[in-house]
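Below is the record:
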Amino acid sequence: MRQDPLAFLATELGTLRDQGLYRRLRVLDEEQKAHTSIDHRSVVNLSSNNYLGLTTHPKLRERALEAVRRLGVGSGSVRTIAGTMEIHMELERKLAAFKRTDAAVVFQSGFTANAGTVSSILGRDDVIVSDELNHASIVDGARLSRAAIKVFPHRDVAAARRILEELPRGQRMLLITDGVFSMDGDLGALPGLCDLADEFGCIMMVDDAHASGVFGRNGRGTIDHFGLHGRVDVQVGTLSKAIGALGGYVAGPRTLIEFLYHRARPFLFSTSHPPSVAASCLAALEVLESEPELIERLWENTRMFKSGLAALGFDTGASESPITPVIVGDGALAMTLSDRLFEEGVFAQGIGFPTVPRGKARVRTIVTATHTREELQFALDGFKRVGTQLGVI
């Protein structure tokens, strides 16, 4: 009888179970909303990236349905053959205008936007200087590029400078950071890093996935938040978080975008977005411009929830955004905290290694514009009960 060559995976899963880190997928029974049903339990949802509630916004629904009726359910091809529709070009024009850049290109996901861009514009003779907590898609793109990778401690501009000072002048260098870090909720050191990029002639790149729709005027992101227009060469964003739909994009100079049309492998070898997705994204950009009160409400809710967690004595780290980690350290404890909260009607996922470093496990929460004050207070009450029972506070 043939032996199972994948038997080692069962051993690895058993280890996760022994460590209390094994997780099964929670299943959403209804729409992605602030209060919903997951695994047939009514819960306040604190784990969604749906910052502004646009996944169910009437304007996005209407535009998606209209696009399906008019253009069908799929594009049928990659962009470079027969899969570029006028609605894709319109979306890219609107994104470029929104981000105040010359041009933009849409990818199938934020992950492929990062990985595809880094791996296509750099090669083995180049150097990438990267924040140690940058998103996994940046890490993977850096590895695929075969460039040398230099990592500086989180948000440490002085350490990044020391790395750059050791590199030969004339070396092609990419300096890269997240705009908002997805597990800690703090902001990248953009002003200081842009100064370094100017001084040392680096390509400056920012992954603004968790800042799009959240920071800056009408949600234009951290580049707008810090007033750095014209100083960031490559801006990556997402269409699947605050925008409420699916995909990612790169915005920057037209030469960059046209090069990605020719060399970015995810663009070249993946079917383009369904028309309904592109239409939803176009509608979302219009909502960002016309309904700024959604972002105002997001921040009002964020301030309330953060202050509530702090008053209870939870460690929320250095968060500056609607992403607020409740850091407990031990991985098994974080998973127990998450499970007990779920029993109380609060859905907040536990996060452990390798997503975060060992000893930094946490329950990660995200507040949205569509949470009511009553729902947030309900969640805080649940955190108080469970946190006290588990000795976290």
Observations:
- The chain has a mean pLDDT of 96.
- Residues 57-290 form a domain with the Aspartate Aminotransferase; domain 2 fold (CATH 3.40.640.10).
